[in-house]
Amino acid sequence: MKQLLLLLLLIPGLLPAQENPKYLEGAVPVADGKVVFTRELSLPGAPRQAIFNGALAWANERFMPDGEFQSRVLTSDAENGQIACLGQQYLVFTNKTLALDRAVVQFHLTLTCTPGACAIRYRYNVGDKWENIPAEEQITDKYTLTKKKDKLIKATGKFRIHTIDLMDELHDGLGKALAGLAAPQQPAAPQTRPLPPLPRQPPLPPLPPRTEPPSPATRPSPRTRCPATSTKCSPRTGCSSPPATTTVST
User: Taking the mean position of all CA atoms in its chain, how far away is CA 234?
Assistant: First the structure.
């Protein structure tokens, strides 16, 4: 296997023409001299035990022995919410007729479950079954990027690309397995803002005194009778009395 890996290094691989920024500078983190990827899944409202049970079920299905590979769950600690896995598999670069280009990758995956979150730690491990080239000498910026750090070196860039893709596949697979645990998001309450104070208005002038409207002039009715008489009255001539009658008695 060592010869196979060295041969792959000597034969430049074909890389995609595009240079995806996700594979360029800083895409492969190094902690304490080791290549370590760390991701976190946010699961708001999910209890730790439920996250742990879901993560363990996913790990038992994802990390299983397969032929020459001995992927498996190494330890599971429900009390502390931690799961450790060993991964062994191929990174397949090209799989065509008479052209099979692949390499073996071995890594440790540690899951740490806390209330509402699950941290994923992916670390390369130099195994004792294959003499693998350490990740620190294979996929870091120093060994895979050009001097300007804007392009990948063809001989080693394919290892970097497929390793990052593998990490994304693990992250997405666990995320789908735990997606149902997150509590449904409540719609945010509408935010109210206090209205600005109204500007002070000048005082209104006093109302004018109320006056009664003049009463309408009275007019005599067209025909009225004078009191205590039976004479007729007219609006034009007024009232006229009939001539007095004198009675003489002898």
Answer: 99
Mark residue 221 as left, alpha or beta (left: phi above 0; alpha: psi -120 to 50; beta: remaining).
beta
Taking only Cα atoms into account, the Rg of the chain, rounded to an integer number of angstroms, comes to 51
- What pLDDT is attached to residue 15? 46
- Strand pairing partners for 112? 82, 119
Q: Can you tell me the distance from the alpha carbon of 159 to that of 101, in angstroms, rounded to the nearest whole number?
A: 11
pLDDT of residue 43: 93
Q: Helix 154-178 vs helix 2-10: angle between axes, to the nearest 10 degrees?
A: 120
112: number of CA atoms within 13 Å, CB side?
Answer: 7
71: CB partners within 8 A, 6+ apart: 62, 63, 64, 65, 85, 86, 87, 88, 89
pLDDT tens per residue across span 7-36: 333 333 444 456 799 999 999 999 888 899
- Which DSSP state fits 34? E
What tokens were used for 56? 């363990």
Choose the weakest-confidence range: 1-15, 76-90, 175-189: 1-15
